[in-house]
Amino acid sequence: MKIYLDIDDVMADWTKAAKALVSRDWNYGERIPEADWDKVRAKTRFYRDLKIKPGAMELYQYCQDRVTSGQTDGLFFLTALPHGDDAPYAVYDKVNWCNLHFPGTPMFIGPYSHDKWRHCQPGDILIDDRTSNCEEWSSAGGQSYIYRDWQSCKTWLDGIFGT
């Protein structure tokens, strides 16, 4: 069993940064309006500058401890290209962001969000904020958690690992 962590809105605080950039709010899970996406895309190095999401360090350490103890076969990041392939530095900056904050942890790219399930082997875990990604992962034989906060996720993980 492997553990895959999404980056945007699980490890990195994408939504908070985007809302601050466009100076407006939208509902969680709602697709960002195109006019707002244009503003995010215009900030060429948006992904490089994302802050670590509250609880992300704890989530990472919890998962890393499961690798160290032999309860899982590895910890990986699994992210996706932005819709429209219109943020040219996104991949470069996501890789560098991961290396800066979580050195040595491999990162895979969907390539798109709807492709993440292709990385799933039976029993693998995906922690992702997008419901559709989690549903597709589970349909492929994995275990998935729709991430909103560390405490709720920890309770779910404790159930998986019996801690």
Entry keywords:
163 residues; alpha/beta; Rossmann fold; five-stranded parallel sheet; 5 strands; globular
Walk me through what this model shows.
The protein has six helices and five strands. The protein is an alpha/beta fold and 163 residues long. The protein has one domain (2-161): Rossmann fold, CATH 3.40.50.1000. A five-stranded parallel beta sheet has the order 3-2-1-4-5, sandwiched between helices. Strand 4, helix 5 (131-139) and strand 5 form a beta-alpha-beta unit. Helix 3 packs parallel to helix 6. The longest helix has 13 residues, at 56-68. The mean pLDDT is 93.
Write the layout of secondary structure elements.
Elements: E1 2-5, H1 14-22, H2 34-42, H3 56-68, E2 74-79, H4 90-101, E3 107-109, E4 125-128, H5 131-139, E5 143-146, H6 150-161
Parallel strand pairs: 1-2, 1-4, 2-3, 4-5
Helix pairs in contact: 3-6
